[in-house]
Amino acid sequence: MIKNLEEIARQCRADILTMTTVAASGHPGGSMSSIDLLVSLYSFANIFPNDPWNEKRDRIVVSHGHISPAVYSTLAAYGFVNRDEVIAGFRHPSSIFEGHITRGIPGVEWTTGNLGQGLSAGIGMAIAGKLKKENYHVFVVMSDGESAKGQVAEARRTARKFNLDNLTVIIDYNDIQISGRASNIMYVDLREEYQAADWNVIEIDGHDFEQIISALKIAKNDKKPTVIIAHTIIGKGVSFMEDTPKYHGKPLSLDEYEKAISELGLSVDIEKYIKMREKLDIREHKQLKLKYEINIDTGNPKIYREKTDNRTALGNAIADLAQLNNNVVAIDCDLKSSVKLDILDKIKPEKLIEIGVQEHNAAALAGALSAEGFVTFFADFGVFGIDETFNQHRLNAINNTNLKVVVTHCGVDVGEDGKTHHALNYISAPLAWFGFKVIVPADPNQTDKVVRYVASQYGNYVVAMGRSKVSSITKPDGSLFFDENYEFKYGKIDVIRDGEDIVIITLGSVLPHALKAVDELAKEGINVGLLNVSCPFDLDEEALSRYARNKVIVVEDHNVYNGLGTLIESKLFNLKILPDMFIKVGIDRFPVSGNSKYLFNIYGLDSEKIKETIKSMI
Amino acid sequence: MIKNLEEIARQCRADILTMTTVAASGHPGGSMSSIDLLVSLYSFANIFPNDPWNEKRDRIVVSHGHISPAVYSTLAAYGFVNRDEVIAGFRHPSSIFEGHITRGIPGVEWTTGNLGQGLSAGIGMAIAGKLKKENYHVFVVMSDGESAKGQVAEARRTARKFNLDNLTVIIDYNDIQISGRASNIMYVDLREEYQAADWNVIEIDGHDFEQIISALKIAKNDKKPTVIIAHTIIGKGVSFMEDTPKYHGKPLSLDEYEKAISELGLSVDIEKYIKMREKLDIREHKQLKLKYEINIDTGNPKIYREKTDNRTALGNAIADLAQLNNNVVAIDCDLKSSVKLDILDKIKPEKLIEIGVQEHNAAALAGALSAEGFVTFFADFGVFGIDETFNQHRLNAINNTNLKVVVTHCGVDVGEDGKTHHALNYISAPLAWFGFKVIVPADPNQTDKVVRYVASQYGNYVVAMGRSKVSSITKPDGSLFFDENYEFKYGKIDVIRDGEDIVIITLGSVLPHALKAVDELAKEGINVGLLNVSCPFDLDEEALSRYARNKVIVVEDHNVYNGLGTLIESKLFNLKILPDMFIKVGIDRFPVSGNSKYLFNIYGLDSEKIKETIKSMI
């Protein structure tokens, strides 16, 4: 068996060099140091090319996604993918074999590339295994350089907390990163740090197959999360590449390539691949998007008549969904009672996953958990669930997860906690996460419907809300607007009050204030229309074309430079509609700390200020 | 002395309770557990109310900014601030005593509140002390809950790497956080983790003044970074508050308050403060903005005639500035040769601060370093320097730092590294960081001018550029557009080619492609105007009013939903200008991996595709 692995690895080394030289791009150095580990791991793990997505398969996450040549060549060697397609297509736009490994390629569980996130994803998969009572094992392969990322420290502790004996980390410790020796750039005492989080630590020679296989056996069978620190040599296998930082991200020239291949004792017809590549069309390949069927009982809507915060409606709806469905989970970052996951905690504590003040790790593992079949609510304050985890959610979006980012404490509605806590980017930031949709419900009744809706749809959603208790939105006759018969339709604009001469467009926690203003102005004989835009990314053109022609004011508890107002401007501009007057009210600077009642007044969001603005428009 | 500290702490405990009860908001629990530490520390440290910003002062960073009542009461006790103003104004919009402590209040070095960032800021200050050869000491007070943040692990290693014996961390280990016991929520083995990073560890009773002072003495004088783990009791000093999570973020009712004050053996006229508060105006207080004079020799511009990447111009300009000025530093995250800081490294290695793959910590410490008088370049790939560090830069902006975020590898110009590495938010994300300005230079000559310009201005800037080599932009006569006589003026739109019927508006790495298209179209008799918008946040209304009336195409290597095109739409909408035709070209989905030449073609950014689009507009 060992002999066989050696032979496979030798062939893979050649493939690594061939594909990077053919592409004139890529990372051969780290690929050569990792290859013996990968060849061993894919041989050892319970995953097979004829059924690569079998639910019971072992999961392999390669966190340092830039060693894609090593991963692809291993997958080709074991029959997961076609070897010629890999070598000719590597890093070509028409090929699925991108620069960084991509989820959806058989044998690739997670798209990585932004370092330090892979272990969190693996932990999500390991927690999913425990929840599903599946016996699969999760292997995470990492580099030493990325071990410096703080998110890795967060992930380590999480593995201990949940006693993830179904998790093994393998570190390719080649001690070289882009700028030099890893130990000089930023020394990480790997053994000490993993032991501080109570992991088993095994150190091996990462080029000795017997040691690798034996370590994998121990790691798979012990009762703790285990890290295998594999001492390796960058560029291993080709004399002039060994232990040189130069080949981290630089392919060999043709001359160097010939020399290297002959050192490996192989011969490759590289011209064949160069010609195959030249024939490839310059076009975008189809994106690989794994998803699953959603079967969710969304239960019955809960109706709120008393003044309630949207958070409570959120917490109730999540608890209800978790009660009705076995595949609903929620992630908390030490804000249980504030984001109202305490309601879930009381009835289904096993479905509340508490990660503490470790938002990066929490967001990434939430994404992976959602990809494993769980409708996953990641609950947090807006500022942590959006701003702090911006890049983690971007990677979730890339991975086409099924995540519901439910953020409370958005806007100056946060109040006294002040500018560090005023989340003002809950509309704008998700625009960067292609595929994410944003919904900002206005009152507890709409919140309830929205939470049940997003649970029933595959895909990534942000549901954003404020902190304060709000009155339920009512129709002119005083009955509930979002009542038993209301059905949430994504993208629909709610016409709360009819009126076309002056129209207020708003969303979220401003709506109750705007409604108060409109109803009071009506008593003064001033008729003002009121639109609620709960879905700022997909604006209802028909409603806007009708209502946004004359005098328009957009009011939002959001950054005024990139929120609802800007999206409406853009939409109207493209519809070639220039209203007679268009005023945007929102937050244009870091706000101060204070009671949200005061802040709504100061920043022009309360009914008094809205009335003043309306009157100034007449 | 100890007796005195005890007495001060007793008074501070009363003040903590008074201000939170008067405000009906705030965090009394952790304030009570931290107060003995703070009272000791401000007494021990070399900082005095009569000259609180003395360059030689010890720096005290309180990372868990929500214990502001403890900080404010301590500052009042030692005469840094007025006690009545604190108690009556706490968390009121007209008061500088915000919910989270704010840089600029005498004795407060850093605005905190987003947990886990304070140690990085302290490290920035400690590195600044070493660079300035000042003997001050930096004390960072933290909570146990926030110790779970990965950024703290990054910071710890950084302290070891730079041998920061001028740094001491004090952890308020009360073992309570919002959702319960810290050790249950996410256990952090503090001693083991700090020892794994080779820190001195001292454990004390955080309510025993002798132990506190003695630990501070040891920590200040030893030759390593030291952590003092102070075991404390939340709510300490009031029987019914002790060791109860409930009072983490909840003030006492008036009844509870009376009981607590009497337990403390004090009497307070709380009515006086309630009345004082009632008289406060409901208005925004003036923001506290510390800054310093910039005296920078910006040197002589370097002229590039050959095809060069903007990164090289960046690296050369930074090296030149560091050669000419002692107060210029650059931060690298293991991308030295890619972001061209290797040029600086060769001539001034002591000014290149290498933090490794620890971007969160790097961004936060860079901000603090810039606040300490260093013109600080934080160099990184766009995806790490913008997306990954979104919330760190937001906190830098809040702290009014003088940071130059210089990001390379923006856009699909990154090429083969693919979607995880395509930074598409370098314009949109900084809109969230109020006060930040964005500049996207087009060629190496403009890059050189821009880098020298931002160094000469106090404030936060993003300078964003691509990866590829680009031709220098030329005038119609073939001479350099950004030549020796060109002066960069922030906000000015460069009219590269005149023409008003069809106008291309672009920036950055697309400009050379657009220029090629325009010059080739001219040969076909099609006259197209070309504008370069290097400052997308501050659009030149005059130029837009003149050139953007007829047929307009905006092309950008950026997310098309929130980039230059959207900002121009918003500007034209507000100028009430509806061009006859307006086309936006940019990236509307996660791109594939491939040579940037191919990607520019696929996504409509190269000269061929631009020409096609123009022709379709005629």
Oligomer: homodimer
Number of domains of chain A: 3
Structural class of chain A: alpha/beta
Cα-to-Cα separation, first versus last residue of chain A: 85 Å
Largest interface: A-B, 113 and 113 residues
Give the mean pLDDT of chain A. Answer: 97
> In the CATH classification, which architecture of the largest domain in chain A applies?
3-Layer(aba) Sandwich
Helix proportion of chain A: 25-40%
Strand content of chain A: 15-25%
Shape type of chain A = elongated
If you consult CATH, what is the topology of the largest domain in chain A? Rossmann fold
Helix tally of chain A equals 22
Number of strands of chain A: 20
Radius of gyration of chain A: 27 Å
The CATH class of the largest domain in chain A, by name, is: Alpha Beta
Contiguous uncertain segments of 5+ residues of chain A: none
List the helices and strands and how they pair.
Two copies of one chain form a homodimer.
Chain A: H1 2-23, H2 28-44, E1 59-62, H3 68-77, H4 83-89, H5 118-132, E2 138-143, H6 150-161, E3 167-173, E4 176-177, E5 180-181, H7 182-185, H8 190-196, E6 200-205, H9 209-221, E7 226-231, H10 254-263, H11 270-278, E8 308-309, H12 310-324, E9 328-332, H13 342-347, E10 352-354, H14 359-371, E11 375-381, H15 382-388, H16 390-398, E12 403-408, E13 437-439, H17 444-456, E14 461-464, E15 469-470, E16 493-497, E17 502-506, H18 511-523, E18 529-533, H19 541-547, E19 551-559, H20 564-574, E20 581-587, H21 596-602, H22 607-617
Parallel strand pairs in A: 1-2, 2-3, 3-7, 6-7, 9-10, 9-11, 11-12, 12-14, 13-14, 17-18, 17-19, 19-20
Antiparallel strand pairs in A: 4-5, 8-15, 16-18
Helix pairs in contact in A: 1-2, 1-3, 1-4, 1-10, 1-11, 2-3, 2-9, 4-11, 5-14, 12-17, 14-16, 18-22
